[in-house]
């Protein structure tokens, strides 16, 4: 099968999908507005200028003719856009079938709420798709409200590679208490909230360490905040790291904290659960599908720094008791719902189904 993805070449999600389906023996192409290179994948770069993480990239829509021209040359069996707005809308303008769209979060949870034009464009885009996937049920509901056809829309949880993210080799240091965040340094992930909470309890936890894994536009602002809160000797920036290194860090972490304001599925949370880190996350739909407060982790109100600080202290003081309760439950949940290979097999099956019924 020849599959052409249309997505951000720098996104870890894009790389995972491309590599996975190439490893299964499919011929994989990637068209992207970001110049990239992925092993065993044929990449095609379209220069649309600077792409802003915060959105407003309407100019990419003007590139649909170049995308359409590439599609005529590639002749893929499946054309699949990741991100419903920029890539999804541009892909829809190409009128190529079978056409698949995968939403990733802000494209359906935030952008349409802020713009009537986005709502109109997404309604059009969904009407051109043969299959639409969401990373979580709350995203699927939003997509249906935006005009997606119920019969063509499914929830496909990406999941994680359980051969990498698991409890094997979990090894906690005895002289430190390590908190890790693996969210990017962008406004939606609310990292300043986490830093403020850590500052409030730093004197009460000996050997406290905060790992910040990820990159983003708030790096310099966070540096300033950390210095102002006298946390420079506690906080460590990692930048972007490979999955193996990410898993190793999580296996050495006592806590994983995600204070995101909005999320699609929160794969970062799945990775931490699988590696045995106790999880504290904001009480939003993306996290509610994985964490039951007090049963296998803690949920905290958005922007409640005092509540977050209190939960960190609770986890520290009752760590062994909570670990014995939370970790086995999380291991079971990941196995049942978040296994990447199981979930991607379902995607491959749908690709084959779309090809068999192709009448375009």
Structural key phrases:
Rossmann fold; seven-stranded parallel β-sheet; alpha/beta; 360 residues; single chain; 2 domains; globular; 16% strand
Order of helices and strands: EHEEHEHEHHHEHEEHEHEHEHEHEHHH
Portion in strands: 15-25%
Summed up, the helix count is 15
CATH level 3 topology of the largest domain: Rossmann fold
CATH superfamily membership of the largest domain, which one?
Answer: Glycogen Phosphorylase B
Largest sheet: 7 strands, parallel
What's the layout of helices and strands?
Blueprint: E1 2-6, H1 12-23, E2 27-32, E3 42-45, H2 64-74, E4 78-82, H3 86-92, E5 99-102, H4 106-109, H5 111-114, H6 116-127, E6 131-134, H7 137-145, E7 153-155, E8 177-181, H8 191-201, E9 208-213, H9 219-228, E10 235-239, H10 243-251, E11 255-258, H11 267-275, E12 278-282, H12 285-288, E13 298-300, H13 305-317, H14 319-337, H15 340-356
Parallel strand pairs: 1-2, 1-4, 2-3, 4-5, 5-6, 6-7, 8-9, 8-11, 9-10, 11-12, 12-13
Helix pairs in contact: 3-6, 8-13, 11-14
Please sum up the structure shown.
The chain is an alpha/beta fold and 360 residues long. Helices cover 42% and strands 16% of the residues. It folds into two domains: 2-159 and 339-356, Rossmann fold (3-Layer(aba) Sandwich); 177-337, Glycogen Phosphorylase B (Rossmann fold, 3-Layer(aba) Sandwich), CATH 3.40.50.2000.
